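hiii so um. not sure if this is the right channel but i have a protein structure encoded as tokens and i wanna go backwards to a sequence. like what aa goes where. can anyone help
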């Protein structure tokens, strides 16, 4: 848990959207040196990824999804289970409320702070013994099994470049953190090996009909409709269910929800509220995690960093837990709907 932050969405870029993203020439960007990133010894990841993407292109694929992790910040070891007594909960606050009500009814504790402490121990994966075990006989956590923090789209055969390029939410060369926008980036820049602390990337393909929908969405210049509004949208732990803040995986999930589940004749009216509704209705499940002390208090610096919102209601500060979106949450959701046809993990060398 030490040092865990979902960093993918804190870097935003500024560029004009007078033209379609597919009409923009992919750019190369400098490496961000913040957050303790040390120079990596990763190599052969770019060449191996390019080779695989070109093989997909030869097979007729037009677009794919890419998931990777360019940060040195570690992921937590455990996540909180989505299910409680056979019911699945998409929202951490709903789950906590049900668990507290259950603990109140199944134990001798009469004061809220007592049964809340019991729930807190379970949410954080601590062992429960004695009579309290009647309320929670099984662990509330399971292994995290998440490795990747950043997601985006790989365009294989369209636009101004014959080489595969990326469309994703990230930051400009000056790393302006305050205004969400989109980046059209070269493969070499996106997978800059000197910053790849985890020397791997996963490429997922979708059905040809879904690939066509994705390209049509970009061609129609609809992608920017799903960007957070205003200048105060930065969030380390973006709430998957609200629209005030945004990070890269939130944008990717919202874009895919609109691209794949919204009728194309409604794309001109696409917005984040509708995208969130689609995600909820189609069973999108953010990962629920126990936070470390620094993350559970993440809202405090907002007073001192230009009014940036550090959370938007998805953090339960009493228990120190939150909903988050690693790329695996996006992959799990797509797999449940039969959208992913193949997934290839590409590893470089150290």
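sure thing!! here u go:
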């Amino acid at each position: 848990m030490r040092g865990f932050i979902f960093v993918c969405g804190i870097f935003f870029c500024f560029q004009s959207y007078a033209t379609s993203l597919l009409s923009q020439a992919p750019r190369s960007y400098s490496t961000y040196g913040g957050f303790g990133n040390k120079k990596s010894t990763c190599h052969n990841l770019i060449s191996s990824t390019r080779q695989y993407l070109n093989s997909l292109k030869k097979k007729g694929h037009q677009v794919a999804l890419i998931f990777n992790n360019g940060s040195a910040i570690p992921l937590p070891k455990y996540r909180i289970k989505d299910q409680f007594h056979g019911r699945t909960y998409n929202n951490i606050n709903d789950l906590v409320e049900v668990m507290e009500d259950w603990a109140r009814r199944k134990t001798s504790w009469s004061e809220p702070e007592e049964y809340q402490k019991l729930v807190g121990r379970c949410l954080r994966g601590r062992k429960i013994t004695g009579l309290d075990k009647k309320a929670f006989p099984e662990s509330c956590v399971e292994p995290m099994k998440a490795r990747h923090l950043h997601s985006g789209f790989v365009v294989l055969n369209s636009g101004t470049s014959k080489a595969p390029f990326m469309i994703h939410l990230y930051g400009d060369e000056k790393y302006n953190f305050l205004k969400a926008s989109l980046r059209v980036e070269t493969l070499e820049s996106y997978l800059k090996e000197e910053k790849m602390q985890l020397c791997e990337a996963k490429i997922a393909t979708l059905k040809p009909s879904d690939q066509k929908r994705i390209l049509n969405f970009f061609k129609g210049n609809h992608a920017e409709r799903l960007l957070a509004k205003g200048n105060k949208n930065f969030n380390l732990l973006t709430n998957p269910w609200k629209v005030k803040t945004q990070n890269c995986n939130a944008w990717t999930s919202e874009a895919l929800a609109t691209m794949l589940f919204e009728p194309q004749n409604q794309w001109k009216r696409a917005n984040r509220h509708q995208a969130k509704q689609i995600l909820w209705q189609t069973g999108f499940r953010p990962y629920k995690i126990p936070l470390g002390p620094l993350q559970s208090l993440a809202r405090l610096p907002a007073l001192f960093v230009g009014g940036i919102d550090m959370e938007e209601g998805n953090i339960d500060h009493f228990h120190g837990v939150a909903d988050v979106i690693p790329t695996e949450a996006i992959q799990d959701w797509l797999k449940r709907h039969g959208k992913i046809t193949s997934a290839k993990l590409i590893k470089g060398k150290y």
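oh and Residues 167 and 184 are 5 Å apart (CA to CA).
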